[in-house]
Amino acid sequence: MFTGIVAAVGRIVRIVPESTDRHAGVRLTVDAGGLDLDGVRIGDSIAIAGACMTVVALDAPTMDFDVSRESLDRTAGLDRIGEVNLEKALRFGDRLDGHLVSGHIDGTGVVQRFEPTGESWTLIVRAPLVLARFIALKGSIAVDGVSLTVNAVDDHETGCDFSINLIPHTVAMTTLKHLVAGSPVNLEIDSLARYVERMLGHRAIAEPPRTTAARPAG
Questions:
Q1: Statement: the pTM of the whole predicted model exceeds 0.70
Q2: What is the maximum span of the chain, computed from C-alpha positions, in angstroms?
Q3: Would you give the end-to-end CA distance of the chain in angstroms?
Q4: In whole angstroms, what is the distance from residue 161 CA to residue 154 CA?
Q5: Rounded to whole angstroms, what are the CA distances from 91 to 1, 66, 124?
Q6: Does CATH number 3.10.250.10 belong to domain 8-88?
Q7: Do 8-88 and 107-203 fold alike per CATH?
Q8: Taking the domains of the chain in order of start, what are their residue ranges?
Q9: What average pLDDT does the structure give for the chain?
Q10: Which spans in 97-145 are helix H?
């Protein structure tokens, strides 16, 4: 589990295909940048642009990760050289400053607008229909691994556009500063929304029908 509070911006510096099979994954080498690698071991989990990945080799300041084709097909930003948001997994006793993030990407969205608004920035992302029902006003969502609060939701036939207000610190300390209209982003919905939807959707099946006891004749 993670918090969505980015610890450092690293950089994918090398991408090596695992084989010539088009269905094969790749091995990523990531320069950790300012991420504190003290205590990080092979087998540990690191969130890369919001996606939970396992360290398979470590030679500080670089880490290697094996990324499957399935993960590459369902995420954005793990298939190219460039900066990525990094966060180490939570430990018991750590502060939870953002919200609980699993690192399991639910889908990708597309940036519609990213521009300064006064002293802050407005980010508008289009989410697909399959995720739209989980995105709510003042709810939490992780965008490229960054825990953010939804300020507005505009539903439409193909999904929804949700708006987020970003303070300058968040923009400066994450890769969100590089976003432009058309940029793909990784989205992870709030786990609470996922469970609520599941429970409500199956409540009618789980609950037996209510019957009214017949009144005695007389």
A1: yes
A2: 87
A3: 64
A4: 5
A5: 9, 23, 32
A6: no
A7: yes
A8: 8-88, 107-203
A9: 92
A10: 129-132
Classify the phi-psi angles of 33: left when phi > 0, otherwise alpha if psi is within -120 to 50, otherwise beta.
Answer: left
Question: What pLDDT, on the 0 to 100 scale, is given for residue 199?
Answer: 83
Sign of the Cα torsion 168, 170, 176, 181 reads: negative
User: Quick check: 217 pLDDT over 80?
Assistant: no
Helix (H, G, I), strand (E, B) or coil at 215: coil
Which class does domain 107-203 fall in?
Answer: mainly beta
Q: Is the pLDDT of residue 204 over 70?
A: no
Measured CA distances, 171 to 16, 69, 78 (Å) = 30, 30, 20
103 touches 51 (CB < 8 A): yes
Question: How does pLDDT run across 19-56, given as a tens digit for each residue?
Answer: 989 889 999 999 999 999 999 999 999 999 999 999 99
* The two structure tokens encoding residue 112: 């519609």
**Between 93 and 4, the higher pLDDT residue:** 4
**DSSP sequence for 172-194:** HHSGGGG--TT-EEEEEE-HHHH
